[in-house]
Structures are given as C-alpha cells and as structure tokens.
Specification:
heterohexamer, A: four-stranded antiparallel beta sheet, two-stranded antiparallel ribbon, elongated, B: 17 helices, disordered N terminus, binds adenosine-5'-diphosphate
Chain lengths: ~110, ~475, ~475, ~475, ~110, ~110
C-alpha cells in the first residue's frame, strides 16, 4: 500500500475530494500547511515595519491507497487541482508497510 | 443710591474693578444635568482604558504576549485607582502654598479623598469653568482618577513585550506619584473662576501660571505618557529579534475595537473635561469628531501614497493621533481649526512612526512616542494658534472680568486679549517643562525599579512569551 | 381685562385659532439634563457603528476579508463625519425655500456647520419636539452626523467581500450627499413645533408633508441603506464560489458582540431621537427593549421549527431585525404594539433572509436588504397602525393646537385626529418615495464610481482576500 | 400664631411627630438630569449582560461551547425582558397587601407594565430615595428589567457546557417568576420615603422589614444567582472529563473584555440604584472604583503568593468579586470601608474558588457560587458593619424623621440610630431568607424542567460540543 | 527504524500518550488534522445557507520507533484509542532511513 | 528521491529557510505541530485548576530532495536549527517513490 501525499491550493479541496469520492477513495486526511517555493508570497506593512511573507497557505492531503490505485489517484488529483498557475503544488508517493483500522483491528486494504 | 448714581456715571470697567474687592464669590450650585454628565464622562473614560486601550495595545503585540499587556493595563487601572484615592489626588489638586514648591505639587491635606478624619464629605464642591457652577469634589476626584490611570497605562506601550510584571506594579505606584500628579498640578491646579475673580493669592500650578492652555490633557496626559514610554523604550532596549524576525500585530481586529472604544470614550475625556454640560462641551464634542476623522483619513492617505496601500492599522493610528492632537484644543478651537489640526496630526505622526522611527532605530513597541508625545506636542502648540477667535477659535475667558451683580461675581465673564506670540510662547514653555519633568521623573522611577526588581525579563522568558513565563496562562486555547 | 372676558366667553378652540396669528413663538430654553442626554446619545450611536456594526458585519465574512470590512466601516465613519460637517448637514437641515426643490433638499447656508463667516455660533439652538424646548444646534449636528455615518456603513453590507476600497471611499463621499441627506431632508426637515404653531410658510420635506411618521429613522436610515445595499449587490454580482464553496461566518463571537453593541447604542438612536429627556424618550426605550427581545426570540423559534436548531446567528439576526422595525415606531407605539411588531418582524425577516433570498439567488452578503430594507418597511407601515391610541399607541401631537399663554405658544399641544387609512397611506407614500430615491440615487452613484474607479476587485484579489490584496495586512497572526 | 408659639416652646421632635399625621406627602417632581442618569444607567446595565457577561463567561469555556454560552446569555436577556414586562415586574413591585403573602410577593395589578387597559401611562411616577423626588415608572421598570436579566444570566454559570438549550429557555421563563421577582419584592418593595413619612400601612417586603440594607442588589442579584447556579451545578453533575482532561479557558482575552465591560456597566448598576443623580450616586461610584480595584489586586497578590504567578484570570476574578461585594454596600459605606471590603473580598473569594472548591469537588463551571454567592454574602454582612458613620459610613436615613414645611414632608430627613448588633442581625436574616428561597425555588424550577425537557445533553453531544450539537454552528471558522 | 503514524480522535490523546510513556516511548509529534472517511460530519446552517461539513477534527501522531517496538506501539495505540465507534482512526507504518537529533547529532535509535 | 522531515523550534524557521535557499533548495512545506519529548512543557493555572502542558510548539519541515542532496540538507538544518538546548528537534529521512508537479505534470527531480 502507498501513501499519496498531495500539496494543493486550499480552494481546490472540495473539487479534489469529490473527484476522489467518485473513483472510490473513501478516506483521506487533510492538514493546513504553509508552502515555500516558486510561488511568490506578498508583503505586509504594519506602520513602519514591512514583512516579506514568503510562505503561502496550502493544504496537504494524505491518502493511503492500494498500490494498484496509485496512478489513478495521482491522475485524478493532478487534473482536479491544476489551475496552470505557479503554486498548484506537488504529489509525493511514499511506501506504507502496515495499516490498521483502530476500531476493528482490520489490516491492509481492509483497513481503508 | 448716590453710589449707584456715580457707578452709572463712571466708566463701567473702572467701576467694576473698583467694585471688585468689595464683591464676593458666588455660592456654588450643582445642576443634576452636570452631575449626570460627569458621572457618564467618568464611566466612559474608564471604558477607554479597559477594554479600550488594553485591546488597542494588545492587538498589536504577538500572541505570546497578549495577556501580559491586558494584565498590565488592568493592573495599572486598579493600582492607579488606589494610588489616586490614597494620595496622588491630594498631590495634584490641593494647594502647595504651605511649602516652597507649591507651583510644582500640592500637599497632603486631601489624602484618602479627604476622609482622614473619618467623616464622609459627600457635599464638598469644586468650581467648574463657569463662575458659580459647582461640581461635587468626589465626582471630580473620580473623573481625574480615570485620567491618572489611562496616562500610566499609555506609557507602558513603549516597552511592552519585554518588561517584568513586578516592574509594572512598582511603576504603577511610583510613576503617578512622582510624574503624573505633579504635572497635573502644574497644568490644572488654579484658583478657579471665583478665585481669579476675587484675586485669590493661592499658588497656582507653574504651567497654568505661564498662561498655557490644555483643555483636556494634551500635555498632562499625552506628552507625559509619551515621553515616559520613550525613556523606558531606550532604557530597556530593543526586543529580541527586533528588525530581524517579523512581529506583526497578532490581531488587528482587537486593535480596531480598542481604537473605536478609545474614540467613543474620548468624548468623556474631552467634552467631559469641560466639567459642565454646556456649549463648550458640545464644541469639544464637535472638534473630537472632526479632528479625529481628519487625522484618520490623512494618515491613511499618505500611507496609501507612500506605501502603496491604505491599511486598517494606518487608519486607526491616524484616528488615535487625531484624538491626541485635539485633546488640548478641544474646547478652545473652532471646527475648522480642528479640521486643519487633524489633517496635520495624521501626517506628522505618520512620518514619526515610520521614517523617523526607523531612522533612529529605537524600539518603542506601540509608538507611544510617535503618536502620543508628538501628537500631544503638536496639539499643545496648535492650540495656542487656533484658539484665536480670528481663526474661528473660541478665545480665552478672562475670569478677572466677570460681571458683578449686587456684590457677587457672576457670568458673563470677559475675554482675554489674545496675542499669538505670547500664547505660543506660553504653550511652548508648558511643553518644555512637561517634557523635562516627565523625562527626568520617569528616569528616576525606572532607575529605582531597576535596582529593586530589574526591568526586563530573561531572554528565555522573552522568547517563550510573557503570558506563560510571567502569568502562567495562554491567551487562546482554541 | 375685557379681552380676557370675551376670550372666556367664546369657544376656547376658536379663541385659540383667533389668538394664534397674534401669539408668538416661545423662546427656546435649554435644559442641561437634555443636553447631557443628547451628548450621550450621540456618543452611543457612534458606538453602534464602531465597533458595533463593524464587528457585526466583520464577524460574518470570511477571515481573509475581515479587515476590509473593518476598514470600510471605520473609513466611512470618518469620511461621513467630514462630509456631514462640510456640506451634507446643510443639505439635510436647512430650508430649500429659496430654490425650486425645497421639498427634496435644503441649501448651502450652513455648510461647515455654519462657521463660514469664521464665527463660532456656539449658542445657536434648534427646537425639540416640545414647544419651546431648545437644543444647541451643534449638538443636533453631531447627533445627526452619527446617523449619516451608520446609514452609509450599513449599505456596504450588500456587497462586502468583493468591492474595491477606492470605490468605498468614493461611495462615502457621494452617497451621503446624493442619497442620504436629501432623504433626511424629505423626512425630517420641518418648521418645528413653534413653526407649525405660528403657521410657518417654510417649505417642509416632501415625506414630512405627507404626514408620514418616522420617529428615529426606519425610513431615513434602514430603508435607504437596505435599498442601496441591494442595488449594489445586484450591480457587483455574486461573490466567487457563492453557493458552491462554504462561506461560514468566520467569527460568530464578534458578530454577537457587534449585535449587542448595536442594541446598547440603539437606545441613543431611538430614545435619543426624541431630542429630549422626557416620557417619550422612556417610551422609546421601553419599546426598544420589548420589540427587540420579541423579534430575537421569534426569529430563533421559527428557525428552530423550520431548520431544526435555534442558532446564535438566528437570534442576533432577529434582534437586529427587531431594532430596525421598532426604529420608526419607538416613540409612537405602546409596549404591546412593540411586542406585536417585534414578533412579526422576526418572522418576516427570517423568511426574506432564507426562503426568498435563496429563491431569488442574489448575493446580498450581509442581508442588508432582508433585514434593513424589509424590517424598515415593515416598521414604517406598522407605525401607521400601532400609533393609534385605541391600540395603546401614543397618538400624534398636533402642534397647530398648542396652548397660548399671554400671547406665547406653549405646552400642552393638542392631539391629531387619527385615521388609520390616511396614516397608512401617508406611511406607504413615504416608503415608496424613499425606495425610489435610494434606488435611483444609489444607481447613479455606483455608475459614476464604476466609471472612475471600477467597483469590483479582480478575481485573483477576491480569491486571495481583500485584507491582503487591498490593505496589505492580515487580520490574525496567531 | 399661638400654635406657632407653642410649637416653638415644645421639644421640636415631639412637635414634628405631633405635626406628622397632619402633614401630607410631597408631589413627586422629576428632574431631567435624573431621568437622563437613569436612562444611561439602564443602558449600561444592559451592556453588562451583552456583551459583558456573555464574553466574561464565554471566554472561560472551551471553544466547542462558546456559542452555547453566548446564545444562552442573549436568549435569557431577551426572554427576561418579556417576562419582566409581562408579569414579573408586577410580582416584584406591586403591593401584595390584598393577599396573604404580601411580604413575599406582589400582585398582578401592573402586568404588561400597567398597559392592560390599553392606555399608555407614560407619566406614572415612583419615588426615589429622596422624599419628593420622582422618577417615571416605566424608566424604573426598564432599569429593573436589566437587573432581572443579568441575574438570570449569572445563574447559568454554574452549569455551563452541559445544559440543554431548551432547558435554558424554560429556566429563563420560570426562574425570574418564581425566584427573582419574589426576592426583589422581599428586599426592595417598600412604601418609599413619602410612604414611610406618612406612616403608610402597605405591606413591605419581608427582608426590607427586617431593616436589611442592600443598596444595589448584593442579595437580590448575587446571592440569588450564586445559589441558583450552585444548586444547578450539583443537580447536573460534573462535566465529562472534569478533573481529568484539561479545560483551560478558550480565550482569556474575551474574558478580560467581558470583565472590563462589567466594571464599566456596574456604575449603572450601583450608582444607578440610587435612582437619582446626587451625592449618593457619586459615593456609590467612588466605592465601586475603590473596592473593585482593591479586590482585583488582593486576589492577584494572594495568587502570586500561593500559586507563584499573578494571572490575568486571577486579576479579573478579583475585580468581579470586588464588584459583587461592594454592590450592597456602595451607597452606604465610605471609601475607606470600600477599600477594606474590597481587600477582604478578593482574598475570601480566591480561597473559595480554589482550595474550598477543589476540596468539595463540585463542578461550578464558572464559579458563580465562589464569586457571586460568597462575594454577595460577604458584602451583605459587611454593609451592616461599614455603614456605621463611626467607620466613615454614610449611615441610614430615617424617613420617619423628614422635615415638615407648611404641612408637607420634605428633605432633610433624619438619621436612624445605628446599632451594629441589630444591623448585622438584620443583614444575616436577609441573607438566610434569600439563600433559602433561592435554593428551594431553584430546585423546584430545575425539577420541573428536568421532568419536561431534561436538563443535560447526551454524552455524545457534550463531547462534540454544544455549539454544533445544540445550535448547529461553530464559533470560529478561521 | 519506522515511523508509526496514527490518526485518532482528539480526546484520546492523553490516554494514548500516557500509555506510550509507560511502554517507554519518550517522544512523539502531534498535528491537528481534518479527517474524511466513513464517519459522518455534520450540517451547519447560517441564515439561509446550509453547509455539509464532511471533515471531522482528528489528531495525527507521528512516532519514530525502533523497528522491534513497532508492534507493541501499534497494539498500545489500538487499545487506547479505540471507542468501537466509526471514526476511531487508522495506524500507518512507514520506513525511516535516517534519524538525527539536532542538538547532539546522535543518529538512529540514539536520536530518539 | 527522499523526504527530509525536520522538527525544529519555531523561531529557527527563517534561519533554516534562508540557509536551505543558499544551498539551492527551492521548496519546502511547513506544518505547525506539537511536540512531546525530553523538553519539559510548563504548568498553567486557571483559578483552581492546574494543567501540566506536556506538549511544546514545534514546526515540522518537509523537504523533498534528490537523494544526493540529503546529507547536505541534513547538515544545513542541523547547524542552523541547533541551540544546544533540549528540544532542538529531530530529522527523519523517508523514501519517496514518485513525485509530480501538479501544474506541469513533470516528475521526479524535475518536479521540485
Ligand atoms: N522540495 C519540496 N519539498 C516539499 N514541498 C515542496 C517542495 N517544493 C515545493 N513544495 C510545496 O509545493 C508548493 C508549490 O510549489 P511551488 O514551487 O510554489 O509551485 P509549483 O507547484 O507550481 O512548482 C509549495 O508551496 C510547497 O508547499
Ligand atoms: N485512505 C485514507 N488515507 C488517509 N487517511 C484516512 C484514510 N481513510 C480514513 N482516514 C483517516 O481516518 C479517519 C477515520 O476513518 P473513518 O473511515 O472515518 O472511520 P474508521 O477509522 O472507523 O474506519 C478519517 O477521519 C481520516 O482522517
Ligand atoms: N520518537 C519521536 N517521534 C517523533 N517525534 C519525536 C520523537 N521524539 C521527539 N520528537 C520530536 O522532537 C522534539 C524534540 O525532542 P526532545 O526530546 O524534546 O528534545 P531533543 O530534540 O533535544 O531530543 C519533540 O518535541 C517532538 O516533536
């Protein structure tokens, strides 16, 4: 099983979630994060002081999926989260060695 | 009968002077409309400090120091109440004729609000600015108490986010005693209308005797606090990471709420300082609307021009700058004068809080110098000019020229011959004495505190934030 | 003596009319209790706008637009102060008899609050609603200033979260001039008690001449603002993602605080509009308690019934709806009438802000139409019914029937013959004229602004949020 | 002439008594300064509840229950307004002479604020504490309405974070009727100055007849609410995870804002309870400054001593404790007495909210018992001691000894012979009756509600938080 | 070494932490996350507008543990975090290739 | 490619970010977390109630880097984030199997 980690623009969350629903991904975990990259931040001025805010708000999606679904999931996210503008984000895939559903003790894909 | 006849024949003014020594002061009568007005004014000046100033200041600091600011302001409010009641009122508003320094501070005859002998002098009266119009002294004491508290609280803006709470407690006890009360005495202790009319020989406050005008405390409150905060900022030094780490206001929402409550309460401050619910209170109100609005907008506009965007912090800073600048002027200048004063105040304070501040590089955390000291000085000087009736000002009443009716002085009283140079000089002297006293007095206070408790928290505590390190609490547990 | 005799013999009312032309208006006397009341009322109406309305509105928008709302409201408060003082007061409250449109707007004789000739007319007086009871004009000017400001600020609720700040600034200058001041003139410019008693030939406001009643501004303030906001909402179009993305209020806590301050300050608005501290101010207060409480609860209960849960937002919305509806009625209806009015207002506004709004699909961000326009119209019409003494209303004073004592008019004055049809018609005509003027006038204002600055920010800026894109700040840096 | 002669010869006091039956009550005259003062006092007592108390309480709960507290307080404010207007005012402030329980509660003659017969009795008057000084009854009704509301809202602090909203609604209807109104009648229903002077035979409230003093509601408001909250806390039981999970206040910032507004509004509560804008209102103000400041500081200092750090929550808790304790004493004790009272109150309440509370282990969510019940009892007893003129107190007026001028009673009135034992006993009896009535009455109310709606939400709902489970909203959507 | 990632109900944090303490786990990192899965969210109504809130608040625990302790840690978490109701959460195990303690530069299990 | 996960003291963020910039790391994602470990928390007192706050605020940096840069990145972080006091934090390295840049669809190091 794999963990698909996607960093996206916040306002894309609903679209992505719905699309994943449709391809049968029944669960995911979202974290509010701050991203640094090509996308410029903005400047804030408070009286005398000016701050270059280099971090932009993003959402991190963590989705555990059976290995065979990885590509489909990645394609879905890519298509839904894309705006074509700098800052659309990334997708990373990392391995998962074990999975358990706390409630039932089920493991592996049964736990999803 | 004959006397009357002659009186009619001679030049009345001469007659009056002749009559003067003979004539006596009117009895003080208290109107319930005035009493109500002063009760309210007192209440809304309290509103300015808590939660007004607390939020205005608190919103500008970082989350980790939010509670420390709120605690400091509220503790100062509480301590100042007691200090004022116990002795500071007496220092400020009793005669010092019996000791050599009567023009600097008063005596101890009214400590504990005059209750020393156990009696409750509920009906003691003081005179307002209209001859014969009285006010109960305890109400005056309460009203002035709120001024003492907010002035002390304003000062701490200079060294927020790094001072020890124990130092704040000591400051709240010493500073009103050594700095605020004497300056209040110098500016506001005078014989009152009847006293002037009857040629009282009591020793008035030094700055009052210059002929300096300060309707509601531009000097007493704002210059005094601004200088004290500035001196403190220098003594304590910059916050860790100042200029390196970003230190954005943690909640401009709260800062805006605080500024709004300051504006609201400021009518008690300015119009209330008239001590009477009459045309002059209304003039003060109109000016407090107009100058404030003008200053808020002028700050916002210059910022828009020079920084590219009009910010809320800029707007509220201008609003406060306008309130400060109009404070000494509120009952003296006309609305057009207030408009001009406001426009100038917004611009001047903007440059002090931006260009000049960063040039000098001091860390006056909440710009108590750039807004209160500078705005207060500007207002004090401008009052000397804009009071001119020729500029639509209300002019200055001369209580030495009150009408005498059957041997008793009464309204109307004459107007003082206005001379801009003289008046400006008087204002300037008032400003200088205030700056000097506040600077030296505050320095003395800080030194004593530094020796006993120390002023600044440890690096580690400052980094962790004063809320947890000094008060053991967090502002938000969301 | 003989004259007296005849006067006694003839039917007194006839005698009075006969006497009328002969009799003259009383001198206006000012009571300090009244002055104090109006000072306070002015202060707490300011409290309604800042921070009251700012928080009520701000809490309902998304975090990224919080500061924009606060900045807009505060800037409007400041700009409206100056606009009012400089010219709008004169447009609203001077006679237009010298030009052809006197029933629509006044003249420029009192621009700069009548200080043009440099003098400071501190003692000018206007008459309250009791014959011979005066009020200093500048206090009246300040009181009305706060009304102008809050009305302008209310309007922007219709298009929050998407309008350019530059457009708001222009709006705050143009709208009070073109829309608010004329409507205030139409509803509230009249000869006053003495004028009516002495049969003044001055040209009163159009809506006043209909005989329409509006005690504290249901028409002038709420319908005017509600319609302006609605027109703006249509013109600017819906927010990005409206109906698709969730847009929950970012802080109902602040919204509740704002609503509470609105209620608190509204006593200055309603009871203050009596211009005098007497029984009618008290009636207005009682009604402002009762109608508001009733409306808050009725909205909450219908919501509980139809949506399954009683929400805080529902409760506060009802509270505001009740305040709006009782505004025109406050000094005219009895407490039982206020109770009924409140219950109805809560339910009617609930349906407009839920069912009807979603049916029509317009994006009136903060429901200024559903609550202020609808509540105001409801209140205006209901006032025409509930003023009926037979329904426990206070009835309408007829200043043409004031008592004459030694050739001077004075209290008590008679009561107007009440006829429901007539009164309802008058109210309806007032509503129609107001709706029409506000709709057309606002449309004109928006068009001008659209041409010069444009009204709406770019998609990207709207998505990023106005705080950062328009003001370069963030509301919270926790 | 001869009569006069004799009168001069005999002991005057005897003469007066002899004269008494002959003399009649003065007409009540209303001063606009007083009316304005009471209008404002009413307004700022409303400010105490919304947003004051709502924020003070709300800030101390967990985020997930924030809205529930705000909704409960606002709903109670609204419901109490209507309940008071509809019947509770009549229960509290009309004579019960016609039924057997006149010393416990009044009758129904003034339900719907006396508008039953449709008429609008705008000009009904009640007498203040100065003989002959009147106040419009509807203003008195509104003022007292705000007391009823805040008392009811205070009580819910005992069982916040776990009670059903439906139970709160029922509570807000039943409790003021069964508990608050009767206690208000027992303490504050009396014949008034003129009644006493003319030896009225009306049945006064039980506690008043003890001779117990309660200037502004230490008993009526604080003990009553504190006990009701305590009983509720016991009945509902502890919150899930109480003592195990941490339950820190979610926003001490809001709690501080609430406490500040409480202090500000409390002047309307204490000084307003004088019903007149005179020296006693000023005395109440001075005491409300001094006792509050002292209590805030004493709590802070003992906490610093025993817990190692001075906390903001400690400071504000002390401030509120001081306000509570000085409430019954405000117009009776002198400033020195207030100082002592405040110092003691801060310390006593600190121990009740810490040591004693954790010892007993009950879960009084917001310490309504430890602060309001305890502070109220302390204040009630202390008033009995500190009113002593020998201790700088103002003493007690004896309206049976008012001056008679041409057959009409008038000021000044004599002073009551003070005896500490007697007075303390009277105070103690008043406390006991109040505690008993509130405990039993509240228990009855809770039982009825428990049977009909149930009191406590399900475990699941409590865990999810009342905001979502009861109101379907979240406080913050940042 | 492995990273044990557990998604649990917020109010279970203290129990889990204490239990891990007892089995000698001296450190972990917690993140506030929003979870989507079988557990239903709730509806919020603001005047006219109704929102289906599909995400429920959860906590994500990240615990780096020596490979041999993985099972014990998983069991501990499962037993402590279980309520038996939908939404109890999941446990994922992913590989860690290197570990360093910033303060000392110690690596691998010595870094924990 | 690897994911370097660093847990650091919040006030060190800027220093670390700048240093990474200098060694050519163009992107990273930051999460606010709460950490439990050797570093003591503090006690909070609210009226009667005392709470032992065991979690201290930290920042979690996630940096996807080409395998060859891992050591350099770790060294940079270690040197910049170190204060020498307990609580400086940890660095964990985990494997990444795939990477995509949502905007362009680029993969692997090209996606960074
Ligand atoms: N090397 C990286 N490691 C982890 N996260 C990264 C990395 N580079 C970028 N990100 C995340 O991806 C987001 C978008 O990257 P950015 O370079 O701004 O635009 P784009 O996705 O179009 O290349 C960043 O805000 C950051 O959160
Ligand atoms: N496929 C997944 N990938 C990542 N996180 C998941 C996944 N499925 C569920 N979760 C997380 O686990 C939490 C609980 O899952 P849920 O299906 O609601 O109940 P249960 O744990 O009883 O199956 C979710 O809120 C989400 O945070
Ligand atoms: N086993 C672990 N798994 C995950 N994170 C850990 C672990 N141990 C410590 N941490 C994180 O590292 C931070 C610092 O660890 P700590 O033991 O306090 O100090 P030091 O880094 O000096 O050893 C902790 O606050 C926690 O966030």
């Amino acid at each position: 099983m794999k963990m698909v980690i996607a960093i996206i623009k916040p306002f894309k969350l609903e679209d992505v979630r719905k699309a994943l629903d449709e391809i049968g991904i029944e669960g995911l975990t979202v974290t509010e994060v701050k991203g640094y990259g090509r996308q410029k931040g903005h400047t804030e001025i408070y009286r005398g002081a000016e701050y270059e805010v280099t971090f932009v708000p993003k959402l991190k999606l963590e989705i555990a999926v059976p290995t065979e679904s990885v590509t489909r999931v990645m394609d879905t996210i890519t298509s839904m989260a894309k705006t074509g503008q700098i800052g659309d984000g990334k997708i990373f895939v990392t391995p998962i060695e074990q999975t358990v559903r706390i409630r039932t003790g089920e493991t592996d894909t049964a736990a999803l | 009968m004959a006397a009357l006849a002659t009186a009619v024949l001679v030049d009345p003014s001469w007659a009056q002077e002749a009559a003067a020594p003979a004539a006596k002061a009117p009895d003080l009568t208290v109107d319930k409309g005035d009493t109500t007005w002063m009760l309210i004014s007192t209440i809304i000046v309290l509103l300015m400090t808590i939660p007004g100033l607390a939020l205005f200041y608190g919103g500008m600091v970082r989350t980790k120091n939010m509670l420390s600011v709120l605690t400091q302001v509220l503790a100062i409010q509480a301590i100042a109440c007691l200090v004022w009641f116990c002795w500071a009122y007496s220092i400020a508003f009793t005669s010092g004729a019996d000791h050599g320094f009567g023009s600097f501070f008063g005596g101890f005859t009214k400590i504990f609000a005059n209750t020393v002998e156990g009696s409750v002098p509920l009906t003691n009266k003081v005179e307002s600015f209209s001859i014969g119009v009285g006010m109960y002294e305890w109400l005056f004491m309460c009203f002035q108490m709120t001024f003492c508290a907010i002035t002390t609280a304003l000062a701490i803006g200079g060294f927020a986010e790094r001072i020890k709470f124990s130092a704040i407690v000591a400051f709240a006890i010493l500073w009103p005693t050594v700095v605020y009360a004497p300056i209040a005495h110098m500016v506001w202790y005078w014989p009152g209308p009847s006293g002037v009319a009857t040629g009282s020989t009591d020793v008035p406050g030094l700055i009052w005797s210059f002929g300096a005008l300060d309707f509601a405390g531009g000097t007493v409150v704002h210059i005094t606090a601004g200088i004290a905060g500035f001196v403190g900022a220098i003594l304590l030094g910059r916050r860790l990471g100042y200029g390196k780490e970003p230190m954005p206001p943690h909640s401009l929402v709260l800062t805006m709420v605080g500024a709004s409550l300051l504006w609201v309460g400021w009518f008690g401050f300015n119009a209330g300082s008239n001590l009477e619910s009459n045309e002059y209170a209304i003039l003060a109100m109109a000016n407090t609307f107009i100058a404030t609005a003008a200053a808020g907008l002028s700050w916002m506009l210059v910022e828009w021009l020079f920084k590219g965007k009009p910010s809320l912090l800029g707007l509220v800073s201008g609003v406060v700058a306008g309130l400060v600048a109009v404070t000494p002027a509120s009952g003296f200048v006309g609305p057009m004068g207030a408009l001009v004063l406001g426009l100038v105040a917004g611009i001047v304070c903007f440059f002090f809080c931006t260009a000049i501040k960063s040039a000098l590089g001091y860390d006056d955390t909440l710009d108590v110098f750039g807004i209160h000291a500078i705005g207060g000085i500007l207002g004090a000087l401008a009052t000397g000019i804009l009071v001119d009736p020729a500029l639509g000002g209300a002019g200055i009443v001369d209580y030495a020229k009150c009408t005498v009716t059957d041997g008793v002085y009464g309204a109307p009283c004459g107007a003082l011959e206005y001379n801009m140079a003289t008046q400006l000089l008087a204002q300037a002297k008032g400003v200088l004495v205030t700056v000097a006293w506040s600077a030296i007095g505050s320095l003395a206070v800080y030194t004593v505190i530094a020796v006993i408790f120390g002023l600044r928290v440890s690096e580690e505590k400052e980094r962790e934030g004063l809320d947890i390190s000094e008060h053991g609490e967090r502002a938000y547990n969301m």
